[in-house]
């Protein structure tokens, strides 16, 4: 499993946003979101739409530093509880962000909070941000959720990179993900090559794509594996199976809960 093309991430931002917008138009915006318990559906969508506009303005303006909300046009969702107005605001913002990403191309240098200072980072990050929060909305509304295998797999890979970056930067939760001789294997049973081996060392953890016996394995359908690894499902839901030391899997999930 490899990185997707810049254009594919742009397409996924539009596609995932469109599906989220369709869900919103027929939903009760006051419904709480169990996987993001501080938010209702309206607040979830406001977060996603604001993130799109923020990232899009960073790319459009070629920002060399972080932007405050007051530097981002239209960053706040429209007042009121009109689902159609909220969905329109959401999709319009995503379209503007994708226009900025496509105009910039993947290699344009811009500010990011992470290890990569290119527009490509924001295309990938917003595609996954939107997909995972669409899952939150679908779970809240009780509707089905599925994503293409390439996007689901890369969501797992990106999250591993984010947790590794957090560990290097001294995040106290991520710092605890260490301890030699233990390993965690993620195995998608319906997507060839979608496997990850996380190995804990004295200085931290490393990961690679591999099939190997581990201290604990989480295996099952790729979409469900992605949801569990992003703490949207319990590891024994959605047809998933835990083999080995469940405590080590819980240890990982509890210490990668930031963000």
TrEMBL record:
Matching entries from InterPro entries are given as: DinB/YfiT-like, Maleyloyr_isom, MDMPI_C-term_domain, MDMPI_metal-binding
Q: Where is the MDMPI C-terminal domain?
A: 151-250
Where exactly are the transmembrane stretches of this chain?
none
Q: Which residues form the Mycothiol-dependent maleylpyruvate isomerase metal-binding domain?
A: 18-138
Among Pfam families, the record links this protein to:
MDMPI_C (PF07398), MDMPI_N (PF11716)
The keyword Endoplasmic reticulum is annotated on this UniProt entry: no
Which GO-annotated molecular functions does the record name?
isomerase activity
Keyword Isomerase (UniProt): yes
Keywords assigned by UniProt, alphabetized: Isomerase
PANTHER family for the chain: CONSERVED PROTEIN (PTHR40758)
Name the UniProt record assigns to this protein: Maleylpyruvate isomerase family mycothiol-dependent enzyme
From which organism does this entry originate? Streptomyces silvae
